[in-house]
Amino acid sequence: MIVDAHLDLAHNVVDLGRDLTLPLAELRKCDAHPDVPVVTLPALREGKVGICFATLWVDPRQHTDPQSAYQQALRQLEVYLRWEEQGLVRILRDRADLQRHLALWPEDGITALVILIEGAECIRQPNEVGFWKAQGVRLIGPAWNRTRYAGGTREPGGLSELGFELMRAMRENHLALDFSHMDEQAFWQALEVFDGAVCATHSNPRALLGGEGPPYANRHLSDAMIRAIGQRNGVIGTVLFGFFLEPTWQRGMERVKLEVVGRHMAHTARLVGWDKVGIGSDFDGGFGLHENPEGLDQPGDLQKIGGLVPEPFKQGVLGENWLRWLQTALP
Length: 331
Ligand SMILES: [Zn+2]
Description:
This protein is an alpha/beta fold and 331 residues long.
């Protein structure tokens, strides 16, 4: 089973108007968007992606206030609930759901979703964390760019007062913390006060991306952050966007070679071990086929990543490491 810890499925449906229930080839025929789609539900199923972390991600450039972000996140949530009703996905809400899914999946191949809030602006106040938990959310990444809660990508800063409250509310509700996009200052503050399950669903080592210099440096993890996540038994999902693999890569250039993905994974593994390395493709999040590494055209191609990993750790990286993490992170 492949586990992909980061897909923006509902964003594709709600914001881009894509019908992800179509076979991938059909969607590509009718899709007018410049980024060529790489993910649909049938493609996940055919690709043996047994579980993915599916985001509620609201674009802050389009939804500039918390109320508007909240409404948009609800529209995205509705997509996952409708798919569940139609039997197209299973939503994992607790460990018992996970066990049931693991028993059923070899027979029916249905992909399960773990719902993740990416960029917490849609949580209007920290006391709404319980509401989102009741809707099925199991992880929260407080930042994308900077939010009211935390410094984020290209917008450094620590946790705000509200951010500390959010940490407490997440802890009370047994939700996991996704460090991806969080600025390093907020990261260390959160790590100190939050003693629940942590991970980075889609983040790469900064050391391979030009270090501290580039403007996007804080989108990635310093070696110290990687070690700290590892010490807390967190798994780190390698993100597959070309620019997050090679700092000199730009849209329109030849796709990044697949072995570069292996280099990122090996760097993380050297710091924390292969059992903390996973996939968080972000395959479908604001980019498409041409922005992903060579040969990764659809979910089934994620299998190829196994070839970049030493044999004993292959199944771990493809899925088992995230599965093990979910066993303890889910309530
Ligand atoms: Zn992201």
